[in-house]
Design brief:
The chain has seven helices and five strands. Helix 4 packs across helix 7. Bound molecules: FE2/S2 (inorganic) cluster (2 copies).
């Protein structure tokens, strides 16, 4: 009787292992673990650390791990600009860089653009000029425009058009976007990212 109970338990245990163990990925599990690395950077003024595959896309780290879904996935190929964030005050397409690229740097997403209760001057100008339609391109437009104005605080209209040339708006709100950036250039007055 005791032997029967033991063999039944053994059978149940073997069955559990066979059904629940990830046999398919087992050979790779050890390799994945070895590939992980601790990446530290500043995200919207907070220190963050991740033990991850350093080759993971920064875009997915922001959207999935941090829930910062303001940064959009558009083409995934570096063409449209919807995924733009600021890294050390420069616009960067987050679909095109790895998490490791952010190491030791300061990353700002649309959610962290303003450090006060008020909208950032570029966000405010987009609202005032109704510079969006569906809004999908807007976070990328605003981050690109902010980085552009930090580098060139008093641009001509032609320079703005050139600076924004590689961000696409499928709704075609371009004229209002350029108007908004012209206004933001005036309100940023010399271009600091945040009010102190
Ligand atoms: S999603 Fe990154 S450039 Fe289009
Ligand atoms: S507002 Fe719709 S894509 Fe630009």
């Amino acid at each position: 009787m005791e032997e029967l109970a033991m063999s039944q338990n053994f059978y149940r245990f073997s069955r559990y292992i066979l059904v629940n163990f990830d046999w398919l990925n087992f050979p790779f599990t050890f390799i994945y673990q070895k590939m992980k690395k601790t990446i530290r950077f500043t995200l919207n003024a907070q220190e963050v650390a991740h033990e991850i595959d350093p080759e993971r896309s920064l875009l997915w780290l922001l959207r999935i791990d941090h829930g910062l879904t303001g940064t959009k996935y558009g083409c995934g190929m570096g063409h449209c600009g919807t995924c733009t964030v600021l890294i050390d005050d420069k616009p960067v397409r987050s679909c095109q860089v790895t998490a490791e690229f952010a190491e030791g740097k300061e990353v700002v997403t649309i959610e962290g653009l303003s450090n006060t209760e008020k909208l950032h001057p570029v966000q405010q100008a987009f609202v005032q000029h109704d510079a969006l339609q569906c809004g999908y391109c807007t976070p990328g437009m605003i981050m690109t425009a902010t980085g552009f104005l930090l580098k060139n605080p008093a641009p001509s209209r032609e320079q703005i058009i050139e600076g924004m040339d590689e961000n696409f708006c499928r709704c075609g709100a371009y004229t209002r976007i350029i108007d908004a950036i012209e206004e933001a250039a005036l309100s940023m007055k010399g271009g600091v990212l945040h009010e102190k």
